[in-house]
Specification:
Blueprint: H1 2-27, H2 46-49, H3 55-65, E1 68-73, E2 76-81, H4 84-93, H5 105-110, H6 124-137, H7 140-163, H8 174-191, H9 201-218, H10 223-227, H11 236-268, H12 274-283, H13 289-321, H14 334-338, H15 359-367, H16 388-391
Antiparallel strand pairs: 1-2
Biased composition (Basic residues): 361-370
GO cellular component, one term: membrane
GO biological process, one term: lignin metabolic process
């Protein structure tokens, strides 16, 4: 009897949902929406597309539905633009309307529902945060003040790689040392301090926490709860894990970095780094202490890791011109270079980009130096750059 009652209740709920959707479609405003794949009730195109909205899948859909198409992902409507001209019209001409980044259930946890700078809503708070961050980060004076430190960190990378015996035999993973360089570059600007080596316990703790944050926030495992809120209870363990990680990271930022700068600023009154500017803005009441911690959170993920990926991309591309492990056709995707670089390569070969050159190849290069080509002759017809639209 209970089973029959439950079955009738579920059928009633389903019928009510279908009826509500039908009434909303018939009585609601009709807009000229872009074309797109037809979706199922409630879930839309989620069952067709899944949680993985990567560019390859979207490119395949663009070939079917055009440069602008619509995906109905549960309660969210996503408009995908695949043309450079249309993207400029959306992001530049209509920049105010599309200036804010869309958050989700996980980023709401890590950013305090937009209390940071990266994911805050485009408006008064964003302009206030931008003004506070401009002076300590985005001026020519800051570049001039920190140039010597940046050059020193780059020099130390080269010296450490040369001093490592493995660089002349099995090879070394350059990414680990570049990562330390990026942390030191940013933490010198932010807190006027640096980490001594890749074995520094605080550096390794911070690196592990930031890596876990990136994994949790960039995963596709939670998208379904964002698209279909009724399924969000199934994400309880995932969201609790995100909340615990956020609490742990904020405590590390507060105890090891922010409080030290606050004590130094109160003692001397001298502004020496970016955090001193930010704490001064907090003292004046322009921002609160949560905003201070979320700025540090942004710097630890958006600034450090993103710049490190760009360096690795450039190193990967430069290998192509040297005849090394370049990014030509058939080369492995970038995640295979940046994500799997920490694991030793098979058969004892150096990892991509390892600081190692076999003696035989080195001797051959010295005996037969590569002829320097006239720059005017480098762009042969098949290598001439094409327009963005033509490449697509």
């Amino acid at each position: 009897m209970d089973v029959l009652l439950l079955e009738k209740a579920l059928l009633g709920l389903f019928a009510a949902a279908v009826l509500a959707i039908a009434v909303a479609k018939l009585t609601g405003k009709r807009f000229r929406l872009p074309p797109g794949p037809s979706g199922a009730p409630i879930v839309g195109n989620w069952l067709q597309v899944g949680d993985d909205l990567n560019h390859r899948n979207l490119m395949g859909l663009a070939k079917r539905f055009g440069e602008v198409f619509l995906l109905r992902m549960g309660v969210r409507n996503l408009v995908v633009v695949s043309s450079p001209e249309l993207a400029k019209e959306v992001l530049h001409t209509q920049g105010v309307e599309f200036g804010s980044r869309t958050r989700n259930v996980v980023f709401d946890i890590f950013t305090g529902k937009g209390q940071d700078m990266v994911f805050t809503v485009y408006g008064d708070h964003w302009r206030k945060m931008r003004r506070i961050m401009t002076v300590p980060f985005f001026t020519n004076k800051v570049v001039a003040q920190n140039r010597v430190g940046w050059e020193e960190e780059a020099r130390l990378v080269v010296e450490d790689l040369k001093a490592d015996p493995a660089a002349a035999t099995a090879g070394v993973v350059v990414r680990r040392r570049l990562q330390l360089m990026m942390y030191n570059d940013m933490f010198r600007i932010m807190f006027d301090r640096r980490f001594e080596s890749v074995a520094d316990p605080l550096f390794n703790q911070l690196k592990a926490l930031n890596a876990e944050r990136s994994i949790l926030s960039q995963s596709f495992d939670y998208n379904y709860g964002d698209f279909i809120p009724v399924l969000r209870p199934f994400l309880r363990r995932y969201l609790n894990r995100c909340t615990n990680l956020k609490t742990k990271r904020m405590k590390v930022f507060e105890d090891h970095f922010v409080q030290q700068r606050k004590e130094a600023l109160e003692k001397t009154g001298e502004i020496r780094c970016a955090m001193d500017h930010i704490l001064e803005a907090e003292r004046k009441g322009e921002i609160n202490h949560d905003n201070v911690l979320y700025i540090v959170e942004n710097i630890n993920v958006a600034a450090i890791e993103t710049t490190l990926w760009s360096i690795e991309w450039g190193r990967r591309r430069s290998g192509r011109r040297r005849g090394g492990d370049g990014a030509g056709p058939g080369a492995p995707p970038l995640p295979a270079v940046r994500g799997e670089g920490d694991a030793p390569p098979p058969h004892g070969n150096p990892a991509p980009g390892a600081a190692h050159e076999p003696q035989r190849r080195q001797a051959r290069r010295l005996r037969h130096p590569r002829r320097v080509q006239d720059p005017r002759q480098r762009l042969v017809p098949r290598q001439r750059p094409q327009a963005v639209g033509a490449r697509r």
